[in-house]
Amino acid sequence: MSIDINLLKQLRETTFAPLKDCKDALIEANGDLQQAQEILKEK
């Protein structure tokens, strides 16, 4: 699955999480930004 680079940047800017974690969260969330943020909060 390819990740939208703009979503990746936005997630990184809002969570300050490492790039790899942001990418993994977006993949797990199927590109859903809000769900990816929740995944990162749980970690």
UniProtKB/TrEMBL annotation:
Chief subcellular location: cytoplasm
GO cellular component: cytoplasm
Listed SUPFAM superfamilies: UBA-like (SSF46934)
Domain of life of the organism encoding this protein: Bacteria
Keywords linked to the UniProt accession: Cytoplasm, Elongation factor, Protein biosynthesis
Subcellular location: Cytoplasm
One Gene Ontology term of the molecular function aspect: translation elongation factor activity
Record CDD domains: UBA_EF-Ts
Stated role: Associates with the EF-Tu.GDP complex and induces the exchange of GDP to GTP. It remains bound to the aminoacyl-tRNA.EF-Tu.GTP complex up to the GTP hydrolysis stage on the ribosome.
Family that this chain belongs to: Belongs to the EF-Ts family.
Annotated protein name in UniProt: Elongation factor Ts
